Amino acid sequence: MAQKKRRRRRKASAGAVLLGIVLSLALAGGAVAGTYYWASTQPGPALLREEKQPEKTALDLYVSPQAVTGTAPEPAAAPVPEEQSAGEEEFAEILGREEGLTVARVQGKRWRGFIALVEDPGRLEVATCPYFYDGAKGRTVDEMAAEHGAVLAINGGGFADDGGYGTGGLPIGNVVSEGKMLWPGGGYTVAMDYEGKIHVGEISGDACKAAGYRWALSYGPILIQNGSILPNLDTRQQEPRTAVGQREDGTVVLLNIQGRQASALGVTCRELAEIMQSYGCVNAGNLDGGASSDMWYRGNYVNISNISSGPRPIPTSLVVLPAAETEEEAQG
User: How far is it, in rounded angstroms, from Cα 290 to Cα 189?
Assistant: First the structure.
């Protein structure tokens, strides 16, 4: 009896195991079938489903050109630069520009200095120290400018200066101021007549007096005469220089060239003439230079003094009077 019960238990147990295996297989098959169905409905690689490939279309990019007929357009005209005064493009810096007067710094490849352009020649006059004699003391450029109420001034003609120890009170050459002959020494002379025209040349004292010039100064050499640079000008000695000249239109050109400095040795007389010609001068002469070479403008020296003691006392200066004063005198 007990054996029968044990046999029935074993059969029931085996049946349960078999039933569990069947159910497990059924569930696994259903899961696989469901997964396959889901995957078949989703976009995916070409291995899982067949996709329709796009059709290839050939594009013809070539377009046959059309012939163009007619006259070719003319090229655009080049712009015309604004007209400039002779030499103005050479200005390194404008220091002052007022009625009828331009003051500027100028510079070349091997030189530098300062220039003043005076449109009305009637504004220029020769200023002097009070007395001329050996041992008399001259005046500095700024002192003479102040005495005349000038707006600009440069050093003038030469003077006795043995060994560089002259007192600046004894001029050499011709000195004419306000139409009066003050010193008839002759020699290379720059003079202006009452029509405002500058004359240059080697002029004796008597000839200078007879010409009736309004002002005159002497030193030399003459740089330019009637538009031509004079021959045989020195080409070796570089020094500080001062020059005065005149353009064809009457404008007076005053030039101060720096020198005796490490950065500015100065220029030769030939170079000075070429610079004055480049600024349009048709007549020009060299004034005193070296330690005496100075330019003063409205209260200050624009150049660096060539000696440690400062501007030298000299007998003459060339000054530029204010424009208003010249107009009042002309009306009077």
Answer: 18
Strand partners, 285: 222, 244
Q: What is the DSSP letter of 299?
A: T
**Contact between residue 293 and residue 134 where contact means Cβ atoms under 8 Å apart:** no
Determine the residue type at 84: Q
Q: What is the DSSP letter of 139?
A: B
What is the pTM (predicted TM-score) of this model? 0.73
Are 103 and 96 in contact by the 8 Å Cβ rule? The answer is yes
Give 19's contacts (C-beta < 8 A, 6+ positions apart).
Answer: none
CB 315 within 8 A of CB 129: yes
Contact 49, 40 (CB under 8 A): yes
How long is the chain? 332
Decide if 129 contacts 138 (C-beta within 8 A): yes
Residue 280 sits at φ, ψ, to 5 deg, of 90, 10
Q: Residues 133, 303: contact at Cβ < 8 Å?
A: no
Q: What pLDDT does 263 receive?
A: 86
Count Cβ atoms below 10 Å from residue 301 Cβ, excluding itself: 18
What pLDDT is stored for residue 332 in this prediction? 52
Cβ-in-10-Å burial (0-12, 13-18, 19+) of 204 comes to middle
- Which of the residues in the chain have pLDDT under 50? 32-33, 35-36, 38-39, 44-65, 67-88, 327, 330
- Residue 324 has what pLDDT? 73
**Amino acid found at 22:** V
